[in-house]
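Translate structure to sequence.
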């Protein structure tokens, strides 16, 4: 009897300690999610009326909807592979026992991840100006200045550069944590067998970091779909030249807060959920086999 009472008391204590988190979760996550789903099937104006799939039909007829997704896919294709590769290389270099000042370099690499995106975008905006740092360097070495903010191609390149700069450090630390779990004996055995550094990287490091790399790619995809701050800071309207910088996040913001159409905005947000889920499943199917390796 005492044992049952003790178990009951422990369970009661656990629920009491979980209560603040559960209350916050319900208020800040669950209720808004349910309301957003309901709004996506409703006309939200002076009153709320059910319209079925009309909001989804409307956004699918909007060329800007597909333009925003097209831009996001370009940004992800241009930034995610480079980010992952650079982060892997930096993590391997920082994991070498012969490297001095590891703590300093880890801090330096991780700083962009904890720096305000607004501040970073504002700094790069000054760099991208016609007389900014980048064009000054180019003209100094005899090259033509680049129209970073007025040409669609270079506007996209500019956003990709900022995305890489912001994310490399975070994934470097993530991969570095994964490398800590790989036994040094495996590399010692490879050394004895005559494997060089490149072979060890391709045959040992990458396969054994596969689960971490997969997680990094999924996180990058989800973050990329919700990109908002960078294009909105670089371009006052968030669209850029010929709408080359507009993202799904920018389109969502404009629809909800400028057009004040919360029904369509909710529909757009749920397409982001669906696309993120599809990409995650595809990445698990392609890269998640033998994930326990």
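Result:
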């Amino acid at each position: 009897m005492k044992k049952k009472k003790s178990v009951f008391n422990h369970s009661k204590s656990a629920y009491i300690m979980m209560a603040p988190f559960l209350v916050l979760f319900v208020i800040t996550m669950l209720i808004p999610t349910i309301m957003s789903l309901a709004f996506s099937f409703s006309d939200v104006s002076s009153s709320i009326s059910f319209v079925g799939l009309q909001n989804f039909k409307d956004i699918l007829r909007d060329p800007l909807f597909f333009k925003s997704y097209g831009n996001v896919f370009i940004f992800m294709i241009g930034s995610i592979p480079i980010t992952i590769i650079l982060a892997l290389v930096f993590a391997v270099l920082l994991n070498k026992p012969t490297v001095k000042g590891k703590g300093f370099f880890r801090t330096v690499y991780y700083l962009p991840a904890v720096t305000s995106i607004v501040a970073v975008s504002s700094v790069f905006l000054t760099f991208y100006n016609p007389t900014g740092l980048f064009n000054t360097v180019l003209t100094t070495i005899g090259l033509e200045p680049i129209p970073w903010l007025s040409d669609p191609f270079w506007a996209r390149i500019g956003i990709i550069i900022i995305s890489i700069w912001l994310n490399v450090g975070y994934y470097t630390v993530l991969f570095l944590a994964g490398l800590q779990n790989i036994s040094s004996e495996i590399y010692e055995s490879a050394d004895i067998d005559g494997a060089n550094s490149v072979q060890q990287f391709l045959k040992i490091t990458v396969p054994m970091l596969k689960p971490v790399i997969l997680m990094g790619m999924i996180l990058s995809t989800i973050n990329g779909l919700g990109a908002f701050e960078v294009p909105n800071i670089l371009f006052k309207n968030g669209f850029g030249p010929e709408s080359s910088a507009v993202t799904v996040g920018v389109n969502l913001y404009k629809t909800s807060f400028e057009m004040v159409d919360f029904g369509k905005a909710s529909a757009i947000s749920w397409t982001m959920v669906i696309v993120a889920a599809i990409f995650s499943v595809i990445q698990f199917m392609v890269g998640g086999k033998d994930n326990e390796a």
